[in-house]
Amino acid sequence: MPSSKVVFITGCSSGFGLLTAARLAGHGYRVFATMRDVSKKDLLLFEAEGRKGASNLTVLPMDVTNPESIRAAVREVAAASGVIDVLVNNAGIGMGGFFEDMTDGDYRDVFNVNFFGALNVIREVLPIMRPRKKGLIINVSSMAAFSGTPAFSAYVASKWALEGFSESLYMELKLQGIDVAVVEPGSYKTRIFKENARYATNFFNLQSPYFQVSQYLKDLVETHAQSNTRDPEEVAAVIENIINKPSPSFRYVIGFRSKLKLFMLRHIPFKFYAWMVRNVLFPKE
Ligand SMILES: NC(=O)c1ccc[n+]([C@@H]2O[C@H](COP(=O)([O-])OP(=O)(O)OC[C@H]3O[C@@H](n4cnc5c(N)ncnc54)[C@H](OP(=O)(O)O)[C@@H]3O)[C@@H](O)[C@H]2O)c1
Known about the structure:
The chain is of the alpha/beta class. The protein has helices at residues 15-26, 42-50, 67-81, 104-114, 116-129, 153-174, 211-226, 233-244, 256-267, 270-281, and strands spanning 6-9, 30-35, 57-61, 86-89, 135-140, 178-185, 251-254. Helix 1 (15-26) runs parallel beside helix 2 (42-50).
């Protein structure tokens, strides 16, 4: 049966956000899909049209780092539907680079989107959910939140922060009848690895002591992303599944590799895990 739930999603111009918005609209949900540049909406509209969901979809401009744009988008949703049943905090960026090549501003840029961006949106949405004593907040985390990864510390740290925040929020919002869940996907070929890829300020600086290893890792990641055949729709399907559960779990690990990684981290010493990672990434070290 089609759902009449109102779903508010961030970062819908590409990747998981786009697919989740199109999928849910196609299945009858009332979807408010936000993106910071609405001139990018055609791909989403095309995808939703193909799933016969375009009439259930409204695209709104919203940058998760800009509180005024969040307030304006939430006001529009409230005026149009009066409620928000589900918030999906999906917007996110990656940034490659060794710590010494990163500036303080680089770290802040990543946190402003991946961590503070989610907080900014939750802050505006909760006053709409709380009086109804129901609602669901799904934060898109990552398997990167399970352990460190060289040359990806800003992203990893931002997702660890999001996880810790989400666990705390889960306990707080239970008191208000609102659920919180995190999804932890493994890697999928979206724009995050190429078109939307970002790099540390000194990533391409020939004087950097990390220059060669950085370029090597960049090629490795791009090759891996290019050959990745996993369908990002899997993530959209898990998000829909969570929305449909009467009592969702807190943590959703998506994909075999993520589950294996989590299992290993729980059962082997960190030093051994780190040795394995180094051997995979830097076999000639
Ligand atoms: N792909 C993976 O392997 C993977 C794995 C685990 C977790 N994730 C997470 O999944 C989420 C979606 O990423 P994706 O893989 O679908 O990558 P993507 O294709 O690059 O999509 C990222 C989305 O976030 C948006 N965004 C970036 N900065 C924003 C801001 N300030 N305000 C609003 N929107 C903003 C982008 O919009 P613009 O078009 O305007 O840049 C884009 O719509 C992210 O949180 C990411 O960390 C991805």
